[in-house]
Design goal:
Blueprint (H helix, E strand, L loop, with lengths): L1 H14 L11 H19 L7 H12 L5 H8 L3 H13 L3 E5 L7 E5 L1 H23 L3 H53 L1
Antiparallel strand pairs: 1-2
Helix pairs in contact: 2-6, 3-6
């Protein structure tokens, strides 16, 4: 039995690919771990009763972009559209934000902080500031600015991808409309010929 197991192992080893990857060196994984670290610091600060780090980020973005659309908040926060919509709906139920039709586009929703939302943000900001300070404090002084710069570059890259995706969606939508219009004209010509 032992020789059969050894033979099976040798057979498996012969076809198994060599994996040359170290999770501990993966930037994506390390960023995720840094995010987990930031969330833990936020929670342990105990200054943000009933609000998570992610919700604080959203409240801060709404305060900064008062009256802007949910789409603009998606771009500012990096939270995906459906998650952000769900978060805003829950915050609206709690009375932290209000939504209304956007002045420039009646289909879009304009989001604003209510007084309780402003108070909740003010209450949570010390925890957010302690997260920022703790993240920077673990770095050597000569690396702190380059860390901020690197995060800024990554954030800009994320913005560029989102903008590119939106531009591509607009282009595809426009092309689909043009194609539909062309088909409609073609049908009308056929009817006239009959």
């Amino acid at each position: 039995m032992s020789s059969q197991t050894d033979a099976a192992r040798r057979s498996d080893d012969a076809v198994a690919p060599t994996i040359d990857f170290r999770l501990s060196e993966s930037p994506a994984h390390l960023l995720r771990r840094a995010q987990q670290y930031a969330s833990e610091i936020f929670a342990k600060a105990g200054l943000s009763e009933g609000v998570t780090l992610r919700q604080t980020v959203l409240l801060a973005a709404i305060a900064e972009l008062e009256g802007r659309s949910q789409s603009e908040l998606v771009r500012a926060t990096g939270v995906d559209r459906s998650t952000l919509a769900d978060m805003i709906a829950r915050m609206e139920k709690k009375g932290l934000v209000s939504r209304s039709a956007a002045a420039e586009d009646g289909r879009a929703k304009s989001v604003s902080l209510t007084l309780p939302g402003r108070l909740k943000l003010a209450e949570a900001l010390p925890a957010m500031q302690s997260v920022d300070a703790a993240l920077i404090a673990v770095l050597p002084r000569n690396k702190q600015q380059s860390f901020r710069d690197t995060l800024g570059f990554l954030s800009s890259a994320a913005d560029d991808i989102d903008i590119g995706d939106l531009d591509e969606k607009k282009r595809l939508k426009k092309a689909a409309k043009a194609e539909k219009a062309a088909k409609s004209k073609k049908k009308k010509r056929k009817k006239k010929k009959k």
